[in-house]
């Protein structure tokens, strides 16, 4: 049974549209009245977590809020027939850290339909090294394959390459035999990205420049976590019949483009939602990750942190200073 008091990272409204996030001590009585109690082993820091904890994005919709959109742990108690004590589970998204209390807590009560069985191939730490960012990357790779963009079609560009989504996407795409170009504004990450499987590099500035709505056909497809002008440029450079899996907005939520790539080249823009994806899609993505993601590459893109480190990491990830993935040990 759970200890009397345990740590959690909680955001509280400070007024004037601002809030503060700090580690506090909770009891089980403080947790929401949901059907499954999970002891959390690990969480992670995604870009969305950075926005939420730092207050630099309007992520949190009600206070107080336990932050953290991911968690991996073990079921302790369950009122649901779907879950039993001892089950190894993970949760990605579903409004955690927005409308529902999340994973930066030693214990959390959760709705049973949010939980996915953790694949036997992964420990809790490895599952969180993947986290929402890696699971989203897998959804993108699967979407490109379903759109008919196979390795034989040509080069794939991955934007935001040194981030969580980009890092995992490069490893997955390279493992499937794609030639991958990594787009990054950090030249010092080239060796790291090359180790994950990147075969070529594009500067962030090159894709961020406004250009013609149709440009020379360069990419068979793309995984984009940046949005805005970067996504518009990638679309303008995508070859006939290509597809772009878009899953983020680190560069902005706008899309300054035209219909020309879509109606003259048949380019498809594939919107990738990881937050509310149905269980079947989640299970398929995690099963594919268990089959395809090399453990050595997972280790190479991962660092470990403590719960107390999360506020500083939140600032760093929003500033683009975090490489790869961060596993947060909840102790």
Which characteristics define this entry?
alpha/beta; 331 residues; Rossmann fold; six-stranded parallel beta sheet; Quinone Oxidoreductase, Chain A, domain 1; seven-stranded mixed beta sheet; globular; 30% helix; 2 domains; 16 strands
What can you see in these coordinates?
The structure is a single chain. The protein is 30% helix and 27% strand. By secondary structure, it is α/β, with parallel strands linked by helices. It has two domains: 6-118 and 301-329, Alpha-Beta Complex (Quinone Oxidoreductase, Chain A, domain 1); 133-271, NAD(P)-binding Rossmann-like Domain (Rossmann fold, 3-Layer(aba) Sandwich). Strands 3, 5, 6, 7, 8, 15 and 16 form a seven-stranded mixed β-sheet that branches. The protein has a six-stranded parallel β-sheet with strand order 11-10-9-12-13-14, with helices on both faces. β13 (238-246), α7 and β14 (268-271) form a beta-alpha-beta unit. The chain is globular. The mean pLDDT is 96.
Number of folding domains?
2
Beta-strand percent range: 25-35%
* CATH topology call of the largest domain: Quinone Oxidoreductase, Chain A, domain 1
**SSE order, one letter for each helix or strand:** EEEHEEEEEHEHEHEHEHEHEHHEHE
Average pLDDT over all residues: 96
What kind of sheet is the major sheet?
7 strands, mixed
Distance between the termini: 15 Å
Secondary-structure content class: alpha/beta
């Amino acid at each position: 049974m759970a200890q009397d008091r345990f740590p959690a990272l909680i955001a509280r409204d400070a007024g004037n549209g601002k809030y503060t996030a700090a580690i506090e001590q909770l009891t089980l009585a403080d947790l929401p009245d949901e059907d499954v109690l999970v002891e959390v082993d690990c969480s992670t820091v995604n870009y969305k977590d950075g926005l939420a904890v730092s207050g630099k994005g309007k992520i949190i919709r009600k206070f107080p809020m336990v932050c953290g959109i991911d968690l991996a742990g073990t079921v302790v108690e369950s009122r649901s027939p779907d879950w039993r004590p001892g089950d190894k589970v993970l949760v990605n998204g579903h409004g955690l850290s927005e409308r529902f209390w999340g994973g930066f807590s030693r214990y959390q009560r959760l709705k049973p339909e949010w939980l996915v069985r953790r694949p036997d191939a992964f420990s809790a730490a490895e599952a969180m090294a993947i986290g929402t960012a890696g699971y989203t990357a897998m959804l993108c790779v699967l979407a490109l394959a379903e759109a008919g963009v196979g390795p034989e079609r040509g080069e794939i560009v991955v934007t935001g390459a040194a981030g969580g989504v980009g890092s995992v996407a490069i490893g997955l795409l390279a493992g499937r035999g794609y030639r991958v170009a990594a787009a990054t504004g950090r030249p010092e990450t080239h060796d790291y990205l090359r180790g994950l499987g990147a075969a070529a590099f594009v500067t962030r500035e090159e894709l961020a420049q406004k250009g013609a709505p149709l440009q020379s056909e360069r990419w068979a497809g793309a995984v984009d976590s940046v949005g805005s002008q970067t996504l518009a440029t990638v679309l303008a450079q995508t070859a006939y019949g290509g597809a772009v899996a878009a899953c983020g907005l680190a560069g902005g939520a706008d899309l300054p483009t035209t219909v020309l790539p879509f109606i003259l080249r048949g380019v498809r823009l594939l919107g990738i939602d990881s937050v509310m994806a149905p269980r079947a899609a989640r299970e398929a993505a995690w099963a594919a990750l268990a089959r395809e993601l090399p453990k050595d590459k997972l280790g190479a893109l991962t660092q470990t942190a403590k719960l107390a480190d999360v506020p500083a990491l939140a600032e760093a990830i929003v500033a683009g200073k975090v490489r790869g993935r961060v596993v947060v040990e909840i102790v």
